[in-house]
Structure formats: structure tokens, C-alpha cells
Design goal:
By secondary structure, the protein is α/β, with parallel strands linked by helices. The chain is about 45% helix and about 10% strand. α2 crosses α12, α6 crosses α7 and α10 packs across α12.
Length: about 425
């Protein structure tokens, strides 16, 4: 979803990011049982989609259907998106966006704003369009290059909703009833006030991924469960409608969808709250003090770091389970400064909190300032931003419609 014309604002490695696949099998081409994620088999009751705010997928160069190919599809494909809700913060940036920016140099990339996911809970209708544009501008400012990546708005590609409906017909209601997010949020809002979208949004998530024939989804170690429903649903549709059944209807047969596998990005990019080192930095946290927003002013950044939670131990160190806030702040400094963990250890080992807070404040301000400048340039040029989103939607529609047409055919619909 994010994209920026001036990627030189970010200091990124020129080498391709290293990801670890949890499976060595590559793309799923047949109908064998989906391998478990890690050491656990799929258990619908164990899924926790609460952090499905951003996701991205990498697909191998040979898509499930040759109709979806183009000259650029010889490269692996990444599809990624975030919700236009709340403020884009440091956790979003360090945990995902920097990886996307690096990946665009080696893969075919499509980044989108998942505005349809933003309406699963009450929201301000007057703010949705503005938030969508702001999100697009922020990600452009962060370094996504529109000559390498397609950027678009989810609702501008209607195939997302169409495929969601088709997938819904194959999704057991029990899988959705056991989703942890639905249980927690419906209990908090009161069952009578909860919309159906909160229950069915995981099917839309699956549609977002499967439309583009994704093979891999880079996720954090704590997010592997988010992919389970998509994997099982892809396999279920393949078994119900693919193979010989599809071929008898005039299709090519075989798998309709690829079954995506997770990839674990480099460690150390999970950014925690400034007020609680055991909780992830979040848009939905009630206190703005808990996060550094990408558009925070210099004074706001300085104030938040000054007031952030620390501890009374002497010296600074990584990986001490009794010092989660210390580990978090050192990790932020490491990622923002571009230094190695060993370099940060040597530099900060004997520092007190006062000196370190000044150090990390200066590093944050210096790193975020060019992003903020570029954001203002982009948001002040609506014609440019509209053009980027329209071009990206056209490219995404071309790919998504090819997948959608195959699904309609395999499910027996009258061809248009």
C-alpha cells in the first residue's frame, strides 16, 4: 500500500531482504493437506486475528493460472496493505514498511489501503476518504517507489468484495465464530451492536491474499495464526471446486488458488508500546503517549520519549526479560540509526536513561523529518496522488479479475 517517489530518503540495504520460509515446499500446486504452521496443526479456535492491520504476501514466479501473468510476473509478487484508521506509527513503519520498501527492488509489488476493513467497527464517515488519502501519502513519503510498485485503494478493485462473497459460501461458520477478535470485540460492544462485518472480515482478508495468487505471507512470529484461515480456505475451495471438477466445466483444472506459506522477516522489528514494554505499539491504544506517530512534531517526539516508561536498573541492555522497556527502546534506536545490535550494545552499555533519551530523540527526529517533508509535498498535490492510485488500481484489477473469472467458472456460474 505504501509507496514513495523519493526512496533515497531512507537508508536501506541494497541487498534483498532475508526472509525465512516455514516450509520448503514452495508453491502449493496440488491438493495435498496443508502443512502445519510451525509445529502446530490448524486449529480454528486457536486463531488470533486481532493484529490483522497489515499483511503482505510473496508469490512465486509461476502463478496458478497463466492468464494472470504479464512480462513483470517473472518476478515474485508481494501484496500488502494497512487500514486507514488511526495514525501511522513507528511500529507500522519499522515492523513492515521498511521491509516493503526494500522488497520492491526485487519483487513485483502491489501495496493497497484496506479501507473495506476499516468499517468493521463504528467509524467517522467524514474522515474515511481523508484518512485513505493520508495513508497513501504517508507510505509514498516513506519510500515506496511508484515506478516499482502499484499503489491502490482496496475498494477501487471490486474483485476483493466479489471473491469474499464466493469464499463465504465455502467458509464454515464455526471457523468464524471461534475467532478471538470477534469474541472480544462483540463482548465489548454488546452483541446487539456488532455488525456482521466483524464476523466475516477474515474472509475478506483471505480474498485480499488469494486474489493475487500469493505463495508467501511475511508475518511476525506472533502473527502466524493470522494466515491459517486463508490457507485452510484456499485448500477447501481447491478441493470443492478445483481439479477434475473444474476441468469438466471447461477450465484448466488443477488448483484454483495457491496455498500461501508464512515467511518470517528479520527479527527485532516488533515495536512495543512506550508505556508498556509487553504490549505492542498500536493505533487503537487509548493513549497517544504509547506511540510515536510518523507525523509527530519534534516537540511531541521529545515529550513522548521523555515521559516513556523505563526502569531503575543501571546501564542498558538487550534481551533481559525483566527489562522489556529497555529492550524496546534499544531496538528502536538500533533500527532507526541503522547500527548493528553489537554497535548499540557498545555505545549504550554504560549510559544512563537521561543521556540515552536525548540520543534516541535526536535519532528519531532526524530520521522522520525527511518523511514528513515529503508527505507534505505529496498531500499538497492531489492530482499526483489520484493518478498514482488510479494507475495502481488498474494494474491490480487486471490481476484480480483473472483469478476471479477462474473462480466463477470453477463454481459453475454462467460466463459473462
Amino acid at each position: 500500500m505504501s509507496r514513495s517517489a523519493l526512496s533515497h530518503f531512507l537508508i536501506l540495504s541494497s541487498s534483498s531482504p532475508r526472509f525465512t520460509s516455514l516450509s520448503s515446499r514452495g508453491a502449493s500446486r496440488g491438493f495435498s493437506r496443508v502443512p502445519p504452521l510451525g509445529r502446530r496443526s490448524f486449529t480454528p479456535s486457536g486463531r488470533d486475528p486481532r493484529r490483522f492491520q497489515c499483511y503482505c504476501s510473496v508469490s512465486v514466479s509461476e502463478p496458478a493460472d497463466s492468464e494472470t501473468t504479464s512480462p513483470s510476473s517473472a518476478r515474485k509478487r508481494i501484496v500488502s496493505g494497512v487500514q486507514p484508521t488511526g495514525s501511522i506509527h513507528l511500529g507500522n513503519y519499522l515492523g513492515a514498511i521498511k521491509n516493503w520498501i526494500a522488497l520492491q527492488n526485487s519483487y513485483e509489488t502491489l501495496f493497497f489501503i484496506v479501507d473495506l476493513h476499516a468499517i468493521t467497527l463504528p467509524y467517522e464517515t467524514q474522515q474515511l476518504a481523508k484518512a485513505t488519502r493520508d495513508t497513501a501519502a504517508i507510505y509514498l513519503a516513506c519510500g515506496v517507489d511508484t515506478s516499482k510498485a502499484s499503489v491502490f485503494v482496496q475498494s477501487h478493485v471490486r474483485a476483493h468484495i466479489e471473491l469474499m462473497w464466493l469464499l463465504s459460501s465455502a467458509t464454515p461458520i464455526g471457523w468464524l465464530n471461534r475467532m478471538i477478535q470477534f469474541k472480544e470485540k462483540s463482548r465489548k460492544a454488546g452483541d446487539e451492536n456488532v455488525g456482521v462485518a466483524l464476523l466475516t472480515y477474515p474472509v475478506l482478508m483471505a480474498s485480499d491474499i488469494l486474489l493475487y495468487q500469493s505463495d508467501f505471507v511475511p508475518v511476525g512470529e506472533d502473527q502466524k495464526q493470522h494466515l491459517e484461515l486463508t490457507r485452510e480456505l484456499a485448500q477447501r475451495v481447491n478441493n470443492l471446486y478445483g481439479g477434475r471438477k473444474w476441468k469438466k466445466l471447461g477450465g484448466r483444472g488443477g488448483a484454483i488458488f495457491k496455498v500461501p506459506d508464512p515467511l518470517i522477516p528479520p527479527a527485532g522489528a516488533r515495536i512495543m508500546s512506550l508505556t508498556d514494554g509487553l504490549s505492542k505499539m498500536s493505533k487503537s491504544a487509548p493513549s497517544d503517549q504509547s506511540r510515536i506517530n510518523l507525523l509527530d512534531s519534534k516537540d511531541a517526539i521529545a515529550n513522548k520519549i521523555k515521559r516513556c516508561k523505563t526502569d531503575s536498573y543501571s546501564g542498558l541492555e538487550f534481551d533481559n526479560p525483566e527489562r522489556p522497556e529497555c529492550n524496546n527502546l534499544l531496538s528502536i534506536y538500533q533500527l532507526i540509526s541503522g547500527k548493528t545490535k553489537e554497535e548499540v550494545v557498545q555505545e549504550c552499555l554504560d549510559m544512563n536513561w537521561g543521556i540515552f533519551k536525548n540520543l534516541i530523540t535526536d535519532a528519531l527526529i532526524d530520521h522522520l523529518h525527511p518523511i514528513q517533508v515529503r508527505y507534505e509535498e505529496i498531500i499538497s498535490d492531489p492530482a499526483y496522488l489520484d493518478g498514482v492510485l488510479a494507475e495502481g488500481a488498474a494494474r491490480a484489477t487486471e490481476i484480480a479479475d483473472a483469478t476471479l473469472n477462474n473462480v466463477y467458472q470453477a463454481m459453475g456460474f454462467l460466463r459473462r
